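User: Hi! I'm working on a homework problem where we have to compare a predicted structure to a textbook description. Could you give me the structure for the chain below?
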Amino acid sequence: MATPWKRRCESIDGEPHAASAATLTNGATQYAPTVKAGIPRKATRRVLQSLAPHLVLAPSIAASLIYVVVFASWSVWISLSKSTLLPDYSYAGFQQYVQLWSNHRWTIAYTNLFLFGSLYVVGATLVGLILAILIDQRVRAEAVWRSIFLYPLAISFVVTGTVWRWIFNPTTGLQHLVHQLGWMGFSFDWIVQRNMAIYTVVITGIWQASGFAMALFLAGLRGVDPDLVKAARIDGAKMSRIYLHIILPSIRPIFIAVVVILLQFAIKTFDLVLALTSGGPGISTTMPAIYVYDLMFQRGQLGEGAAAAVMMLAALLVVLVPYGIWTSWQRRRERANG
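Assistant: Happy to help. Predicted structure tokens:
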């Protein structure tokens, strides 16, 4: 029969505590309960589990702060200094920016950025959307078609630029092939024309990125409620009207995400242009990233190169900041609506 001391040693879960025994003078045994060792261990485990995500993310967050915030701030300060070949931290105001915008090559590079960026984003978005709509019709060998359209994304920009440079070359590419077939009047020498070379970069960029846009659009189309489409078809609506008035408006966030990501690709374009045209003919296809590299590592003009990099950062912020504000507003709106 259990004594009161022994019953008090039982834990809430029915598991006995570790107890020490003491023999009294009358020969009876008295049990003194001790604290269960598993309780502090469980508390420690809960604390570690709650801190584990923060501990895992801490190195990445620290690296991001160093490589983004610290180095970006350093570039801004260098752009306001008198730095040339080596850093010179004496303040020079906006002298580097004035010198930068007075340079004809930088003006062409920034103009090319807006021309290439607008055509590249619109073209890749439209081609990706058309491909996604076609695949959404439940075609045969859908997985094969998806792989084919996504394959360009797996190829590096250097390889893409090299291959398309051969295709656009009048002496070895498409023009030469058509001439061999007998059509001697055919001409496709855009890559050697100053006014048309930028469009070869646009075509190559669209070929590279349209598969990425297709994948995002296809995921959005597959997420549309099929009951809405069935109800519209029962009412006699054509598929074209269903896509224009029901499906496409419902994937508006996908459109915004695709545009923002493609704009980032356009602003940071470097290796594609370098492999395809090397910034030529002349300086007709020079991009800001190429000009920044040339200033910093070829000419040794560190201050002016930093000013050009800051202008690229400003163009990137023009895209990212409104997108961040919009996504934050969307989340607050969804929470308010429940």
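For your comparison, note the following. Confidence is low (pLDDT under 50) at residues 5-25. Residues 38-79 form the longest helix (42 residues). Good luck with the assignment!
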